Amino acid sequence: MGKYFGTDGFRGEANIGLTVEHAFKVGRYLGWYYGQEHKARIVIGKDTRRSSYMFEYALAAGLTASGADAYLLHVTTTPSVSYVTSTEDFDCGIMISASHNPFYDNGIKIINGKGYKMEAEVENKIEAYIDGEIPELPLATRDEIGRTIDYAAGRNRYIGHLISVATRSFKDMKVGLDCANGSAFAIAKSVFDALGAKTYVINNNPDGTNINTACGSTHIEGLQAHVREKHLDVGFAYDGDADRCLAVDENGNLIDGDLILYICGKYLMEQGRLNGNTIVTTIMSNLGLYKACDKIGMKYEKTAVGDKYVFENMMNNGYVLGGEQSGHIIFSKYAKTGDGILTSLMLMEVILEKKMSLGKLAEEVRIYPQLLQNVRVADKKTARENPEVVKAIEHVTEALGDDGRILVRESGTEPVIRVMVEASTDELCAKYVKEVVDVMEKEGLVVA
Fold first, then answer.
1. What is the pLDDT of residue 147?
2. 50-65 and 20-34 helices cross at what angle (nearest 10)?
3. Which of 66, 82, 86, 99 is catalytic?
4. What is the DSSP string of 120-139?
5. Rounded distance, CA 439 to CA 392, Å?
6. 99 in active site
7. Helix, strand, coil shares of the chain as percentages rounded to 5?
């Protein structure tokens, strides 16, 4: 974890934690780094936040000042930047988004030429340049100064790619889409309409400040009500940059990332297309997912939290499906990052091929109640390793046995310890979370 770049880019509140000066320097370094032996070509996408325009221009200024050409996709999704970067010979891609965060936050995600999240080695060099630890870089002059180029055509090619992935028509299917007033607004409906679905779209009118506001995958209740009210067959909710997808079944019930992994994993296994009969999860996946997998002989790997780590495991072992409970799902045959719209297309394939409703497909998994509490502490490592805290965690682990689990981990982005308990009832979850948090407070580790 770097000073500025976390597991999912450089994030902060616009003009406070993340400024135009930061963006300009990111552009300056990347333009110089990739332009040492040829004229660099770098593609930029953005979500619908008010500040995304500001950062787009700052990045483009930095890139062109270093001699690179900046290709502007304008408002688009994170997975589309990955797709365009890897298929159209760009040196790297940049996505301006803070994903599911509020509109006043923003972020810079950097994607390498293969379409993967940028290597930490390069991010560390950018950080060193931002902090003045690297000598000032030369400015391009005369005809070596770069250009900005409108590249909306790249987004259209990505839409064509998504449509080509679908294996059958969606005719007669009533589908709800919650676009979170974010990046999906310019893409998702076009894809589902082209495939013949009767599409019902909500939260599809971004104004720069309403992205993720009481909508999208972080506020699924809006889509649940919409599916029930319109009697839809299925609903899909995306986050701000559309690299996540959560679903809603025909009865308005939530189908989270764990259930999506199970449904798609089982289907691919039945088809002989799930390499190693294995899915890749994070340590936050629900115990119910693992118990359901065990029943059908589907194997699983567990990684640290972050789709970056899921993807690394998939690439190292040749697995084709992995993801997170939050809806970051990676289908490595078609994408190199989580892709919310692609995930919804894959779920549609299972529904249509098996001629079963989403609710029926999900009923094999009994999701265990889960409670997560974020505890703000003075020092994460000290709190996590405190002997009394360790003793409390061991006691809860023993008490839960095979019918639950406790997970206590340090946040990668905040001064927070996350205490999560899964158990057979909500009451047990609350009891055991409180037991650990009370010890933290008694030891003087918690701050207001």
1. 98
2. 40
3. 99
4. HHHHHHHHHHHTT-SPPPPP
5. 7
6. yes
7. 45, 20, 35
Rounded Cα gap, residues 33 and 93, in angstroms = 13
Strands annotated E in 161-291: 174-178, 198-202, 234-238, 245-248, 254-255, 278-282
What's the rounded Cα separation, in Å, for the pair 404 and 288?
A: 9
pLDDT, tens only, 419-445: 999 999 999 999 999 999 999 999 999
Of 417, 438, 411, 338, which is closest to residue 95 (Cα–Cα)? Answer: 338
Q: Which residue has the tokens 């940028």?
A: 118
User: Which pTM value belongs to this model?
Assistant: 0.92
User: What tokens appear for 414 in the block?
Assistant: 């905040």
Residue 435's identity, in one-letter code, is E
Residue type, 351: I
Per-residue confidence at 413, pLDDT binned at 50, 70, 90?
low
Confirm if 82 and 115 have CB atoms less than 8 A apart: yes
For the chain, how big is the Rg over CA atoms in Å?
Answer: 22
Q: What is the mean pLDDT of residues 380-385?
A: 93
DSSP 8-state symbol, 352? H
The answer to whether 83 touches 158, Cβ cutoff 8 Å, is yes
DSSP string, 370-404: EEEEEEEBS-HHHHHH-HHHHHHHHHHHHHHGGG-
pLDDT digits (tens, 9 = 90+) for 313-338: 999 999 999 999 999 999 999 999 99
CB contact set of 388 (below 8 Å; sequence gap of 6+): 439, 442, 443
The β-bridge relationship of strands 148-150 and 69-75 is parallel
